[in-house]
Amino acid sequence: MLWHPRHWASWIGVALIYGLGRLPFPVLWAFGSLLGRLAYLLDASHRMVARRNLEICLSHLSDAARARLLRRHFGWLGVAALTQGVGWGVSRTRLARLVQIRHRDIIDGYLAEGRPVIVLVPHFVGLELGGAAFTALVHSGVYMYQRIRNPVVDHQICRARRQYGSVSIERQDDLRGLIREIKRGTPFFYLPDQDAGRRGIFVPFCGIAAATVPMLGRFAAMTDAVVIPTFARFLPWGRGLELSFDPPLADFPSGDPLRDTTQMNQVIEAHIHTMPEQYFWVHRRFKTRPPDAPPIYPPKRRHRQ
What we know:
It is a single chain. It contains eleven helices and nine strands. By secondary structure, it is of the alpha/beta class. The protein has one domain (about 10-280). Helix 2 (about 25-40) packs across helix 4 (about 65-80) and helix 3 packs across helix 4 (about 65-80). The longest helix has 20 residues, at about 65-80. It is globular, with a radius of gyration of 19 Å. It starts with 7 loop residues before the first helix and ends in a 33-residue tail after the last helix. About 35% of the residues are buried.
């Protein structure tokens, strides 16, 4: 059914992304930056969300500084969009040229010991390329995913993420398979920083109560895994990407979900301040609010029927 005529437009889009991924990286950086600046001008909805998030999370900056950061952020969003296809079927040799890996000895030591590892990967814009580099150059992994409505895009994304031996587990699947994979020594990619809705607990994120999934401590406790924060950062002027590993979280898990989830958010916050223009600000991180708390964002406009 994927080759049904109604999906042909999607296949053309996938082919375009794949082809763009074969261009020199500085070219992708240049055109991606222009594309992102254009999106800044045209996409009022996401611009509003990102501006509001910056007001909340980086309130110490002046209005002018936040405005400049917002424009740079959209530039990096464009780079992330145009480089999406770089990790699709590309050789390990090219990824090794494009990606600089820092502090790899941290994770290699635990993998050599056979110790279960959870790779804590926050939503910085280099996430997709960083994930491809990890599985191609460091170790295959296991990740959870939610199906994308477009079946062609879903097929291609899953295929790309599995190309170097990684394992995918759908969010609705039995988590026992995930636990077995982690215990087996397959690193688990855990993406922690999206609005969790009413499934989450409220813990501080940049000083604001944010609905957050409190599962990291539970996964670590069930598998005796170390949690290694991992960050992907695009380098300026199209010089590639940097994938960096931090030392594992200390005294983790504590057994207290509130404390563990707060510690996780603090680690993410600390890295936001090192590369604020590359955090994923267009996400409505504070959409779910505590009872009786006022909304952070204005309501979305409904299109007239």
